[in-house]
Specification:
- By secondary structure, the chain is of the alpha/beta class.
- The chain has two domains: 254 residues, Carbamate kinase; 95 residues, PUA domain (Archaeosine Trna-guanine Transglycosylase, Chain: A, domain 4, Roll).
- Helices cover 40% and strands 19% of the residues.
- It contains 15 helices and 15 strands.
- It has an eight-stranded mixed sheet with strand order 3-4-2-1-5-7-8-6, sandwiched between helices. Strands 11-9-12-13-15 form a five-stranded mixed sheet, sandwiched between helices.
- Helix 3 packs across helix 5 and helix 4 packs across helix 5.
- The structure holds glutamic acid (GLU).
- The site of glutamic acid has 16 residues, from helix 4 and strand 4.
């Protein structure tokens, strides 16, 4: 089974597992969950936990409702709740001699390559020290434009940058079904997904929605990142006690199988960016050149959308606005507006300074 064979596992748990509908903390569940984590570490697996719940626990402490919370207020609430979250985990995990550390990430920590590599080193050092990193989004700092917003995609990026080979997304749904199990008693759980094709997309639109922030949509986006990264990913119900042991014994969940990819770690990171900053719309000639493995030149760019800086992730779209590739731009958006459609030899003259001749170098680009 995929989990048994993995060496480094990321386990994501949603808020609804930690706090029930009546706002009670599910302490008994967490005590059992700690046994699950112990089982993994005893089997020599490295474990990263991604846990939601900062905002929910902050609301509980303040006795306020999560609904209608304004962003700035929720940032303060998350700051109050995050310490509650860590205390809760720590109190229970230390009884099983499981050492926890805290990592709070903002979007840029995975989207800027240098910071992603830095985060990877921190994970490695924590494993060497015998600690289990407990990750959440740094909700107190992140504002809407620079926010993951859901821990599903955050967990998949964490799995990717840390080089993990298995991610389990525990929430309050059993997995992906071929129709809505709440409405249709004959609905079947899909056990394995190799390709996220039209059929699967169709199942997603009919799927049951869960209580958390993400729902099935963000879980599928997480799965796409895992597939590219060579990481197995499961969507599973975590509500019952010992959810990890349940997967090991019954395997009742949906597994997304990784694709065999020849891309190196850097290119995997480029293609799975979750926050491209702009679009470059290019002509047929440019698409043809890219297909031959060439870099993207200014001459082939017809239009641009968005504002971005040099080094930012951008999408390359064909004239029908279909995404063809992704890459890191060597110029900012204002510069591209001035040089688009021009021959590379004119760039220095137009900009008034010497710069690169490619807008996106082939080494910084990955086809979709
Ligand atoms: N980071 C948020 C929290 O801890 C949760 C995001 C999510 O539910 O996915 O409250």
């Amino acid at each position: 089974m995929y989990l048994n064979n993995s060496k480094q596992v990321v386990i994501k748990i949603g808020s609804s597992l930690l706090i029930d509908d009546k706002k009670n903390i599910r302490k008994k569940w967490l005590i059992e969950f700690a046994k699950d984590i112990e089982l993994l570490t005893k089997n020599k697996k490295k474990v990263i936990i991604v846990s939601s719940g900062a905002i929910a626990l902050g609301c509980k402490k303040l006795n306020i409702n999560k609904k209608n919370l304004k962003l700035d207020k929720s940032q303060a609430v998350a700051s109050i709740g995050q310490i509650e979250l860590m205390n809760l985990f720590n109190e229970i995990f230390k009884k099983r001699k499981l050492n926890l550390s805290q990592i709070l990430l903002t979007l840029e920590d995975t989207e800027i390559r240098r910071r992603a590599i830095n985060a990877k080193r921190t994970f490695e050092n924590l494993f060497d020290l015998g600690f289990i990193p407990l990750v959440n989004e740094n909700d107190s700092i992140a504002t809407s434009e620079i926010k993951y917003g859901d821990n599903d995609r955050l967990a998949s990026r964490v799995a990717q940058i840390s080089g993990s080979d298995c991610l389990i997304l525990f929430s309050d749904v059993d997995g992906l079904f071929d129709s809505n199990p709440k409405l249709n008693k004959d609905a079947n759980l899909i056990s394995n997904v190799k390709e996220i094709d039209k059929k699967i997309e169709n199942y997603i639109s009919k799927s049951v929605s869960e209580h958390g922030t993400g729902g099935m949509k963000t879980k599928i986006e997480a799965a796409k990142i895992c597939q590219i990264s060579g990481c197995y990913m499961a969507i599973a119900n975590g509500l019952k006690f010992r959810p990890i042991k349940n997967i090991i014994s019954h395997n009742y969940c949906t597994w997304f199988l990784p694709k065999i990819s020849k891309l190196d770690a850097r290119k995997k990171w480029i293609i799975s960016s979750i926050s491209p900053k702009g679009d470059l719309i290019v002509d047929d000639g440019a698409i043809l050149a890219l297909k031959k493995g060439k870099s993207l030149l200014a001459a082939g760019i017809k239009n641009i959308q968005g504002k971005f800086k040099k080094g930012d992730h951008v999408k390359i779209l064909d004239k029908n606005m279909k995404e063809y590739a992704r890459g890191l731009s060597s110029f900012n958006s204002e510069e591209i507006l001035r040089i688009k459609g021009q021959h590379s030899s004119k760039i220095s003259e137009i900009l008034g300074y010497v710069s690169k001749s490619e807008v996106i170098h082939k080494d910084d680009m990955v086809e979709i």
